[in-house]
């Protein structure tokens, strides 16, 4: 039996699928609750903000010299996009996308385990890291998906295997749903976008307007790294290296968080359940940001999905357990090329 088509002012609106409803409800529930509490961000602070060179980006020449990573860019100023690239153009393309409050360097631990297999592309997503931030642009998931598709097309990548963590996972899923001819395989790693049947303390805090992903003082940075890492030693190390940069970006990151929640994906377009690419749903069982039950929703909705779970790992498997994470990605992608 076909679903009824809703009509508005003489226009036909396609029936809303279960997956689209879930995405919309998620942004209703989490986004609207947070935005009711969110403080206004000074346009002057955003306009006057300038990036600085911090510890992670200083590693690029050193690490690149070791494993042959090349830093590339397209565009200029506030509209530039910067990425790391390794491998031959003739090799299968592998796109790695970071999450919120993260950067391209978060994927570096995986690179030695992919040697010679892929053409690897690791962007700083627009607005993040070394890529440009323009406060007059929008940074919703819809906007970012279009930018990523345009960038891949510009650099001549027409077929790609996509891996996305957290916010990058939501973008990876939307890219696969909206541009199925481009995405060969998909890995959703602790991905944003669907509600589970349980919520983490972090999500409950977001509903009250608190956001541990945007630290404003050194102690807040430790709370952030404790949130995303299950390994305490890694959390302390990450806090030490990232504190200055995260605090410097506090107003920009607040703006980007509000953009992500306020500019929700268009539910009349393809969403996660429309993904046709073979999909690996990868999750840390101890994820304190996005509950493990979210993984089972992705697996349920996506037709060709399989699961890979890591014991004793939090929100960032590529940093907490790089070798098993890389092996799982490599085996899955090579099997589905």
From TrEMBL:
<protein>
    <submittedName>
        <fullName>Alpha/beta hydrolase</fullName>
    </submittedName>
</protein>
<feature type="domain" description="AB hydrolase-1">
    <location>
        <begin position="92"/>
        <end position="320"/>
    </location>
</feature>
<keyword id="KW-0378">Hydrolase</keyword>
<dbReference type="GO" id="GO:0016020">
    <property type="term" value="C:membrane"/>
</dbReference>
<dbReference type="GO" id="GO:0016787">
    <property type="term" value="F:hydrolase activity"/>
</dbReference>
<dbReference type="InterPro" id="IPR050266">
    <property type="entry name" value="AB_hydrolase_sf"/>
</dbReference>
<dbReference type="InterPro" id="IPR000073">
    <property type="entry name" value="AB_hydrolase_1"/>
</dbReference>
<dbReference type="Pfam" id="PF00561">
    <property type="entry name" value="Abhydrolase_1"/>
</dbReference>
<dbReference type="InterPro" id="IPR029058">
    <property type="entry name" value="AB_hydrolase_fold"/>
</dbReference>
């Amino acid at each position: 039996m076909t679903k009824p088509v809703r009509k508005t002012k003489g226009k036909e609106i396609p029936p809303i699928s279960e997956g689209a409803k879930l995405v919309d409800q998620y942004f209703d529930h989490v986004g609207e609750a947070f935005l009711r509490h969110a403080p206004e961000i000074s346009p002057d602070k955003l306009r006057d903000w300038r990036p600085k060179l911090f510890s992670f980006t200083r590693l690029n020449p050193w690490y690149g010299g070791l494993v042959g990573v090349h830093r590339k860019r397209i565009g200029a100023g506030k509209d530039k996009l910067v990425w790391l690239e390794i491998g031959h153009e003739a090799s299968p393309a592998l796109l790695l996308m970071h999450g919120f409050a993260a950067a391209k360097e978060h994927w570096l631990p995986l690179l030695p385990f992919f040697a010679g297999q892929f053409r690897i592309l690791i962007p700083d997503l627009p607005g993040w890291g070394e890529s440009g931030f323009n406060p007059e642009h929008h940074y919703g998931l819809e906007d970012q998906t279009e930018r990523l598709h345009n960038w891949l097309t510009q650099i001549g990548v027409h077929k790609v295997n996509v891996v996305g963590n957290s916010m990058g996972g939501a973008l990876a899923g939307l890219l696969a749903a909206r541009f199925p001819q481009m995405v060969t395989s998909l890995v959703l790693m602790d991905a944003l976008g669907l509600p589970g049947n349980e919520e983490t303390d972090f999500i409950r805090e977001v509903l009250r307007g608190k956001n541990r992903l945007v630290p404003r003082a050194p102690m807040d940075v430790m709370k952030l790294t404790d949130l995303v890492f299950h390994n305490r030693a890694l959390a302390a190390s990450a806090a030490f290296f990232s504190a200055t940069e995260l605090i410097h970006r506090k107003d920009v990151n607040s703006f980007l968080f509000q953009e992500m929640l306020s500019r929700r994906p268009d539910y009349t377009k393809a969403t996660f359940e429309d993904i046709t690419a073979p999909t690996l749903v990868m999750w840390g069982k101890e994820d304190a940001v996005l509950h493990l039950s979210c993984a089972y929703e992705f697996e349920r909705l996506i037709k060709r999905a399989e699961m890979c779970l890591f014991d004793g790992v939090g929100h960032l498997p590529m940093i907490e357990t790089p070798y098993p994470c890389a092996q799982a990605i490599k085996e899955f992608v090579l099997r589905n090329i």
